[in-house]
Amino acid sequence: MNDVTLDPTLDLDACAAEPIRIPGGIQPHGALLVLSPEGFEVLQASENLAAVTGLAAESGRPLADLPEAASLVAELERWLAAGDSLLLRALRIGEATFQISAHRTAQGLLVEFEPPASEAETLDALYPRLGRFLDGIAQAEGVGEVAQIAVREIRALTGFNRVLLYSFDSEGTGTVLAEDGDGVLPSYLNLRFPGSDIPAQARELYKLNRIRLIPTADYAPAAIVPPLSPVDGQPLDLSLAALRSVSPVHLQYMRNMGTGASMSVSILVKGELWGLISGHSREPRHVNAQVRTACDILGQILSLQIEAREQAQRTAERLALKDVETALIARVSAAQSYQDGLAGNATLWKDVVRAAGAAVVTEQGVLAVGLTPSDAEILAIVERLRAEDRETAAFDSMAAVWPETASYAERASGLLAISISQLHSNYLLWFRPELVRTVEWAGEPQKPREVGDRLHPRQSFRLWKEQVRQRSAPWTLSEIESARSFRASIQNFVLRRAEERAELTSRLVEINRELESFSYSISHDLRAPFRHVVGFAELLSDRIGDQLDATARHYLQSITEAALSAGRLVDDLLNFSQLGRSSLKPTRVDLEKLMVEVRRSMGPDLDGRPIEWRVGALPSAWADPAMIRQVLQNLLHNAVKYSAGRDPAVITVEGEDRGDVTAYTIADNGVGFDPAYSHKLFGVFQRLHRSEEFEGTGIGLALVKRVIDRHGGTIDAHGRPGEGASFTFTLPKRPRAESHGEFELG
Q: Histidine kinase domain location, by residue (predicted)?
């Protein structure tokens, strides 16, 4: 599809993959010139350049060699010096005036030449109309009225026979929301266009280049000469070129539609293609660059208006749903169990997402209210959700996803489901019944291709009505967010906390978070000052160290050592506080492999040490690999540190299967500790040995305990002075969620 052709027999599958950004030619109502940024040497040009502009540009020749191009060269130099992204102005070249536009690309400066605007079509002349548009939409009610004002203004600006505005749904289907016409072309108001009419790559190009004009559907493209760029050997990328030639399939589509000219303005909301404004005329029609710029400005204003109004609508909808959720949670919290609370407030439960039926599935079974499938059918749905690992599912047609659900589509076509457990098949579910309705299309959506062994753009745009079944009203983003919020509320206020301790636990959790945040902030902010102290002390020693007496050098060394020690303490505090802020990412961990890696990383600290390692079989564990690595590093580091002086030091590492848990023990023959003080070992800043004897910050074992606690395991220690110490920690065999994340429901 790279060749420039108007062959009406076109392969739509190939068209879907057609490189429309590099068509190899431009529309012939203008001309194109590609110049090098340095020296303005001619790199490429459209074959009609001389005929349109009179410029006899030759590849490799500087544009300045052409006397008639002097004004263009001067304008390009001013533009590049100013650093503007786009050049747009009227310029006289030779005996004629042209509308010049230019932009930078990796393949050179792309300069386009088009017929100039008349005095009535300049931006100055168009500004009052834009002002009236702003005044009109400020008083408009809703997106539909804003859209109608927009199409009316676009048609007044461009003179097209018909201008329509349509928006896209999640499947790419376009629905005409507003239309303004003079009766020459048929009306498409409220009709739908299938997503297949605009391939995915074309949608992406609409996001990149907001305006596209086709003055005539019967043009013969002007080829780019040479076809490959001298810069990179690739076809010229015309993504941002106003004159870019369009797909031959689209031209055939226009002719089938009965339009001789078209223009589109993209409507982007939050960076995505929300919709298009499309103008059509039966006869060819050119819209100059000044008017197109005005339409682009109007389109951007419209995009902002739509985004603001939709956001306001979503906010109002979300607030209304939040009121329902708040009322329901208040009643659920006062009930004996959350299931009783839901069952006793069925209407509120359904209204959380505006559903006709609701259900909750736990180990105790199915609780359903309103219009729902049977209990057995609900359990089958939950099994499908679990098998497909869907934490959240929002379908307006379950039958389209799971055909076996079609048998009860009349009762439940729409499903909104959300998981409330990481370990069990526990779900909150809402259902909506089938909504039988008639949808009107501009042509039959299922028949875009005609007879024959070649494929064609669809030829019919006549009204075609489709009766839609097995589909409910779609779930809105606000309703999905409401379901998620309700899930969080159930977990936070009912399931995670015993009712009698809910308020106390909430306060403790908040205080703990504040303390962690404070610890993190202080530790993070102190790292740099201590590093500066060490750095400047070392610089001072290097610079005047030989001029200091022994006492002064001792003072300087003490400063360095104290700052290094404080820095290590700050780093450990930062690690400790970060541990509370990060989430667990449990997976299957090979402890034997991890043990080898940790020992290898400790290599520099073990040089010259007589250590006898006794490592037994270590069963695998279900844990966060990074956190368990930290546990092993801290325990092994302690074993090596506190067995210093032993010849040899004996360090034993063993694992043991204990049914529901796996235990791991790390022991040494070092200095040991008094068992009477073992309860202090895992506290922050707790030491059983003087810091002068063994360096450390007193945080390592506290960090170890915190990691094990978060995994739902246990850790204990045994030791005797002079006889060594052993630490044993256990980990559950199956995933268990941490206390401040997802958790089991029972």
A: 521-735
Pure H helices in 545-685 = 550-581, 591-601, 603-606, 625-642
Strand partners, 463: 442
Whether 88 contacts 113, CB under 8 Å? no
CA distance 345 to 334: 12
> Which residues have CB under 8 Å from 69's CB, separation 6+?
55, 57, 63, 93
- SS3 of 354-408: CCCEEEEEECCEEEEEECCCCHHHHHHHHHHHHHCCCCEEEECCHHHHCHHHHHH
**What is the number of residues in the chain?**
746
User: Residue 416's pLDDT is what?
Assistant: 95
Residue 670 and residue 310: Cα distance in Å, rounded?
A: 68
Confidence at 674, pLDDT banded by 50, 70, 90: confident
| Tokens, residue 75 | 């304008």
pTM of the model: 0.58
C-alpha 651/C-alpha 632 separation (Å) is 13
Reference 333, options 512, 483, 486; nearest CA is 486
Residue 683 DSSP label:
S
CA-to-CA distance for 92 and 30, rounded, in angstroms? 15
**pLDDT, tens digit (0-9, with 9 covering 90-100), for 64-74:** 999 999 999 99
506-520, 523-537, 702-716: which has the minimum mean pLDDT? Answer: 506-520
For 559-604, write each residue's pLDDT tens digit. Answer: 776 655 555 555 555 555 555 556 778 888 899 998 888 888 887 7
Residue-level pLDDT at 691: 47
* pLDDT score of 473: 86
Q: Which domains does the chain have, with CATH numbers?
A: 12-19+118-217+256-312 (3.30.450.40), 30-114 (3.30.450.20), 583-746 (3.30.565.10)
